[in-house]
Every structure is written in C-alpha cells, then in structure tokens.
Amino acid sequence: MNILVNEESHPFSQPLTLLALLNELALNPAGSALAVNQVIIPRDNWPAHLLEDGDEILLFQAIAGG
Fold it and tell me: What is the per-residue pLDDT for 64?
C-alpha cells in the first residue's frame, strides 16, 4: 500500500494506524496536527485511525510566533 505524506510517497507492506505511521517515519507527534484526505483527525483518534491505500496525509507543525 502507498501513503502520501506531505506530497511524498511511502510504500508499506501492511495497513497502519496514524500513530504507527508516525513511528515508522520517526516523526515526533508533539506540537503537530494531522489531516487525512483533507480532514483533520483529532489526536485521540490517531492510535485507532487505520490508513488505506492511497490516503494523503498532511502533517502540520505548530509554530510559535508573535
């Protein structure tokens, strides 16, 4: 299965949850938000949200500013 993360394709041999995807890609979830197919997924749902072939993930990092 292929998952697109921030416009970069990543092949996986088995289905993953959002949280497992972050772990596989060594991405730190602190201070970030995720959208799957342009829908924001609440952080509490990341461990259970199962990804499907062709899903498009956008990872947003919080940026402090003033």
Answer: 63
Question: 20 phi and psi, to 5 degrees?
Answer: -65, -35
Mean pLDDT for the chain overall: 90
Rounded Cα distance, 64 and 28, in Å: 17
**The pair of three-digit structure tokens given for residue 2, joined into one six-digit string:** 């292929």
- Residue 29, pLDDT > 90, answer no
Residues sharing a CB contact under 8 Å with residue 65, sequence separation 6 or more, in sequence order? none
- The alpha-carbon radius of gyration of the chain (Å, integer) is 12
- pTM confidence score: 0.85
